[in-house]
Amino acid sequence: xxxxxxxxxxxxxxxxxxxxxxxxxxxxxxxxxxxxxxxxxxxxxxxxxxxxxxxxxxxxxxxxxxxxxxxxxxxxxxxxxxxxxxxxxxxxxxxxxxxxxxxxxxxxxxxxxxxxxxxxxxxxxxxxxxxxxxxxxxxxxxxxxxxxxxxxxxxxxxxxxxxxxxxxxxxxxxxxxxxxxxxxxxxxxxxxxxxxxxxxxxxxxxxxxxxxxxxxxxxxxxxxxxxxxxxxxxxxxxxxxxxxxxxxxxxxxxxxxxxxxxxxxxxxxxxxxxxxxxxxxxxxxxxxxxxxxxxxxxxxxxxxxxxxxxxxxxxxxxxxxxxxxxxxxxxxxxxxxxxxxxxxxxxxxxxxxxxxxxxxxxxxxxxxxxxxxxxxxxxxxxxxxxxxxxxxxxxxxxxxxxxxxxxxxxxxxxxxxxxxxxxxxxxxxxxxxxxxxxxxxxxxxxxxxxxxxxxxxxxxxxxxxxxxxxxxxxxxxxxxxxxxxxxxxxxxxxxxxxxxxxxxxxxxxxxxxxxxxxxxxxxxxxxxxxxxxxxxxxxxxxxxxxxxxxxxxxxxxxxxxxxxxxxxxxxxxxxxxxxxxxxxxxxxxxxxxxxxxxxxxxxxxxxxxxxxxxxxxxxxxxxxxxxxxxxxxxxxxxxxxxxxxxxxxxxxxxxxxxxxxxxxxxxxxxxxxxxxxxxxxxxxxxxxxxxxx
Length: 693
Known about the structure:
- By secondary structure, the chain is of the alpha+beta class.
- Helices cover 48% and strands 8% of the residues.
- The protein has 27 helices and 9 strands.
- Strands 1, 2, 3, 4, 5, 6, 7, 8 and 9 form a 9-stranded mixed beta sheet that branches.
- Helix 8 runs parallel beside helix 10.
- The two termini are 24 Å apart.
């Protein structure tokens, strides 16, 4: 492990207040728990009566025993930044999400080590070997969950976190997978991702962490071996095994496995979803459709099954049914990661690396909001998470393919619009409208029949151009606050399902026999749009409006050979906006403009993702990787699954020798190069060991 150059210190206003705050919040934790808390008591060398409390957070430390945590505290007894104090005691707190206990190791310097655990009521308990096994597994899962490079809101709120890689060798991998195997059938107790309504055997934080680890490191043989053993105890686990087979390019085995297991479990939605996703990615949406419908019938309360069906309708270009299916998706309130609730500190000390690094990397952790135009700050789509983010991305994908005008046309064909509802209500007081049959329509629609020209029955004619293409001819004169260009029609509201009273169910439900003859333009055959989906259309309109204005202004300035000026923060937002709307070239353009003005980890990550996905220049990708490693190192992080995955893929494509040569040729401090080499060496070691890679 590379020794961190410095340790962040958060000073308490009152001694032990951080420990008390952590103990009070134990009963509110619902997920994997917060990062580990390390609390130190310092006293001045010349005044033994005065004591100071400091703390920081940690992820990725080996929490398999009290000895490993005590060893970490012992590494903190000397600080090059504080030679006026000495550490007299330390407390390491690590949350066990299985048993809902906080495991604690108290170290007195010099002196003894005491380990115990605290329950939700604050009572002390004995720390057993079984509890340490659970704690270790939770620690590894948290390391991957909290290593999202600072993009999540929870991560940003936590100050002073040191992140370490929990698995740095095949020995530590065996330890992790052995713990996962022993505790696998208790994984549902840990909760699940926000898109999952009810955690189960194959959808929980443990399975997510396992798949994330296998994806990051490419240790497919290890994953296959684990799930092969587990599926003998429960065949439902075959869905996880099939996913690893597919990622390992063992598609024939995956297809055979799914076929065999679905014979015995014909309504297992995780198996059906895996099969539907595979068929759709292979361009066989016609096969995927019926499978996805069965998956929805099997788990109608899960967002993922409906989203998959909508995704397949999009690939089949059945835009109306895609919207109806999206409208039927059950939406869940986003549950963020557990975050520590700490009292206001007296002061915060965040030391910089001892050796100088590029000035561009010393990035301010807080962006200057005053430099961002109010319209850009109010783009609501930037804050979407969970089910709402995935639904929005499906909506933007449809828009990218058929254009905004065509999307509005289809929307008005399948949903009751506010104005027509008002008119119909005036002419016919006892209007009946279908309020809950969108899902029935989506499920009962017939499978697509290929036409001679390759089109699909039921599809809507594609719009001739995208919204931003039309806007080039009608460029607005103002900035982002200008009114919408004529080419971008503002959507009118639909009638939400809450508006129509209960009991207005359509007396003639949709059936397979009458679907094709159904006239969506007829008022009585339309559906009621969910309020959340209606809001997504408004948010999408605002995204498209701002994007269209930006691209139009850019074209105007370039035609006049003028410099188009934006602040780095604005370029960053515009890059995210273009990426949300699936305009990758424009996103890269915005990120590049941001990085020319200052270093931005968000813009650099966006560039890296887009360039790597499009086969960018290897040296440019390595340069971006090294700068991100440097930035993370400055903020006490030695672990990023995203960077580890990118380096692994580069080594597979270009070879380890070439990548190491490029890394060594940069002019950054040696400890940064060492950490980058460590990433590369870990990838190469994993790739060469066993039968993986």
